[in-house]
Amino acid sequence: MEVIAGKPSEEVLDYLLRRRSVKVQDICAPGPSKVELDRILTAAARVPDHGKLFPFHFMVFEGEAREEVGALIAESYIKDNPEAREDQVQAERERFMRAPTIVGVISRLRPGKHPLWEQLMTAGAAAQNFSLAAHASGYGVVWLSEWYSYHDDVKAGLGLDERDHIAGFMFLGSIKDAPEERDRPDMEKIVTHWRKGMALNNGDHYDREKFNIPKNKGFSA
Ligand SMILES: Cc1cc2nc3c(=O)[nH]c(=O)nc-3n(C[C@H](O)[C@H](O)[C@H](O)COP(=O)(O)O)c2cc1C
Description:
By secondary structure, this protein is an alpha+beta fold. It is built from seven helices and five strands; from the N terminus they run H-E-H-E-H-H-E-H-E-H-E-H.
């Protein structure tokens, strides 16, 4: 395959400069066809990946599989909230009914010398590539984690184990209502043209106790 690097594209740039997630309640059927979804997934998998480890996996939920995951989420919710009202449980049961197609992006850690932190970032890159490819295919998409991505029973029910982190679930489909702009960072505050003495943390005092900073740099084994 002929690859591309450094090919000017105003269209791609314009997309990146104006891209927006949609609200999950503004997603509706139809979702992508199989051919479209395969293409989106192939684009998503084309990410920088130190060591060619492919430390990610895509889980596609369509049709009845969404109801089964809903039941799993509701079951875990009841376990943690035995006093929950039926309408609350029902809302949990319907979480995966909010889009015709949902793709879980799973970070699966691979053993070896490559830092776990880098492997996690590669999964994040795959999720963002997925989002961009979905948009460019004409669909709305939003990347959600919500509480159940961190629930051990839900993870086990999906067939995941301790190597796995859910980067997020990509909810996608047609768009009911176009999104509006949201706040974006002040570029002056987040870009530094570095020179000596201009470190990122100049004057940025922080309370160390409020952070749960891993001691193990790179989270390597
Ligand atoms: C890892 C990750 C998890 C997220 N989880 C949620 C979530 O559970 N609920 C939510 O409202 N937004 C969540 N978001 C934020 C939305 O995906 C989205 O980025 C945000 O609404 C901003 O929209 P934008 O993509 O148009 O900038 C998450 C984003 C990331 C990167």
